User: What shape does this take?
Amino acid sequence: MEITKADYQLFKPLLFSLGYRMLGSVIDTEDMVQETFLKAYQLNKNDIKNKKAYLCKIMTNLCLDLLKSARYKREQYTGPWNPEPLLLEKIHELDPSETVIQKEGLSIAYLRMMEHLTADERAILLLREVFSFSYSEIAHIIKKKEDNCRKIFSRAKQKILVVEGESLNYEKNRSIIDLFVEAFQKENTAALMELISNNVTLYSDGGGKVSAATRPIVSTTNVLALLYGIMKKTPEDFYFEVKSINYQPAIVIYIHGDIHSVLSFYIDKEQINEIYITMNPEKLPIA
Assistant: This one.
């Protein structure tokens, strides 16, 4: 078998899902998907036994090269780095059936935790846990011994927390965000203190392109002070919408009719534990 144009439509959602989880960037992922198929067409092999594994191998290694390259070193990034928000509409465009993209591995909280992993740990964890490849298949994809892949997977699992279950219940999280918005608009600090964890951390991603906190903000008092300060500076034509971002409710803020920022949340045990404000214009979805 060889890769055909029909395979592009068939496997594109799968490859996008893999690449986005590895890179946290829509633009980079789309580039890697295109490059994967271009490379597959150029090689034009007719002895491919498993197209899915073959294309995932090319995609994974392209992403690994990108992650390990100089341009992707996070220490060069100004301030905290948040994954690029993905509008739910974008996901539907890629995969209307939603059979490929699992919601659990797409939350901003999960993607941000992936940053604690090395490139190889990230690839092996995804290939094994999300895409259900066997260790022998993973070993072939990333060119490592099978026993080594098992050890790397175990190490990766120990580095990240599990984001699943009730913490990803959309309706419950939406009700908490609605309460948060209502309390914030009324400047009801007491209500906000109930909704936000004492140890809440806010990650503000401006990427050096716009003004943003260059370090994580910790504690309810400091986070609320920052949010109130931001609100006081907003112009009159400011407005917001609660939208589905990465399969979770998020606040999309508009200024002058354009998306200014996206506020995503990690909610656990009915309290907001982390807030991710993405303001870097290069990461914002198109309105």
Observations:
- Residues 165-278 form a domain with the Nuclear Transport Factor 2; Chain: A, fold (CATH 3.10.450.50).
- Residues 53 and 137 are 8 Å apart (CA to CA).
- The first helix runs from residue 5 to 23.
- The chain has a mean pLDDT of 87.
